[in-house]
Amino acid sequence: MVLTALAGCRDYVDDPADGKASGPSLAFCVSTNRGATRMSDNVTQVDGTFRDIAEWYILPFDCDAPVGIDEFLQPAVETVVIPYESTLNYYDDHSPDIPTGTKSFICYARPQSVDNGFIYGSLTASFPTGEGRKTTADITFSPEEIYKEKAIGGTKPSIATGATAIASYLTAIAKATPEEGSAWYETDLFRGLFLKFVNKGHVIAASDTSATKWALWLKQELIGLPKEGMPELTEAESNMKTAILTAIGDGISNDYPSTIFLPEGAAVVEWNTSTNAFEVQVETTIEANINSLDRFIYPAELWYYTNSNIKTSSSTWLEEFSGTWDEVLEKHENDNATVNGGEASIVIKTPLNYAVGLLKIAMVVSSTLTDASETPKEITLKDGKTAGEEATFPLSAVFVSGQHTQNFDFTPKENTDEKIIYDMYGKDPETGKPLFTMGTALRPPSSPTPESNPTVFTNTLVLQTKDETNVRIALEFTNNSGEDFEGANGTVFQGTKFYLVGTIEVKGGHTGDEEFKNRVFTKDRITWGTVTISSLQQAYTYLPDLLDPRLEIGIRLVPDWIQATTTNVPL
After folding, report:
1. Distance from C-alpha of 570 to C-alpha of 307, rounded to nearest angstrom
2. Are 71 and 5 in contact (CB under 8 A)?
3. pLDDT at 18
4. CA–CA separation, 552 vs 544, rounded Å?
5. What is the CA angle 205-206-207, rounded to 5?
6. Bridge partners for 400 per DSSP
7. Distances (CA, A) of 437 to 238, 261, 298, 384
8. pLDDT for residue 348 is more than 60
9. How far apart are CA 493 and CA 251, in angstroms?
10. What is the mean pLDDT of the chain?
11. CB-based contact 309:336 (threshold 8 Å)
């Protein structure tokens, strides 16, 4: 929902003829962190160390807040904002030029970050420049695509280097032919294996790890020929077997698609019956149930936002600013005031709160899971926390759909492409153990409040989503069970990634304000999700199209919501 202004802003605040402007002390407050993300504690401020503000934008308006989406922009207040000496989340300046007639401000701020979206998240802020009058509609915040012109480490890496090599490798196996003889897909003995190898024309997971495992599966099948009860291979069949084994070799290793900073499940190939070759698939189509490579984005970045009226005072209260922000506000006698040029002190009433939301996930998992084999296989989970023990299924990433470019007020902009967050997880740098596993490491809270809940969660910064729109998520695990198992679309080989998909529905067990019951993610709110995993039957070998309604749901997720920050923050 886009908020509209209580009163329209005029085209210009100051009367250019008189040139009056106010030069008081201007103060604002930034809320402290109430949640965590998968990033480190000091990055997210969860350890209590405020990261300070490194960048800010202060925009004045001559109408009451909330300022709407088509209001004219005034020049930003030119000021060097400094933290007040006794606190880390109050800021003031003694010499800003604030136009007379100002009634409200829109403020943005963000802490210092490093150019690494996987650690800090990333949003591209667009503030209007150039000729012509601009409005708030010209301010946007866009999620940053991971595979783009300038990725981490320099220029955009080429898909062809890794993807084409994998497709060529698998094609060489499929078309392996002895010096004399036919291609193996033309022979009765090998035709069944060939049809399975090309997955009957459906897409195949094609990271270097998956492609190698797929080829080595075929190798073991060939080594096992002839099977018991079968006649000995003819010379032609034996030559054919040798030719295929030679093409397989020991597999392929080129680190694709990590070379373009994307998850293993983003890499797929598909057998083309017209060209008799595997072809790389990089875009979503009706046939290829995948995500286009340009859909993947970094998690949201920590931004702050407020759209607020002001209070003013004819006295300077700088020396007495202490305690809570409420006490600061009480010292300013003029509420919902208008700047007239005689103020000594102005405060922006509403603190800057988080402009992004937070998804927190806990898991409830059966101790033994069955797969999709004709005779279901049972796999017993280990969480990897015992000395010498390896986690059966460590969590390596979380994917979140429903992400759009945001308006000036951090609401989703219409007619923009939906993106998918790729939030990577690794190992604890101190213990070398996985941060999260499908085992016993993640449990739901008895009460969903940060103060009383000791449970460790996965956490991802997210953008506000559209109203009445469900959100798909996917969890990426590594199969460290020591054995292969069958999933929704084929064999999940030992050592490869697999994906379980679920839906966060807007009609979940909502405990928040009425306004937020019709959306999944809301700025400055935490969405808690308790994931239940009871089977491996819906495990995908690659990351399927999260926007496809035909997906097989492998996890059940029950959401809840709470406010992320308090409005009145102690200084």
Report:
1. 20
2. yes
3. 46
4. 10
5. 115
6. 421, 473
7. 45, 22, 22, 8
8. yes
9. 14
10. 81
11. yes
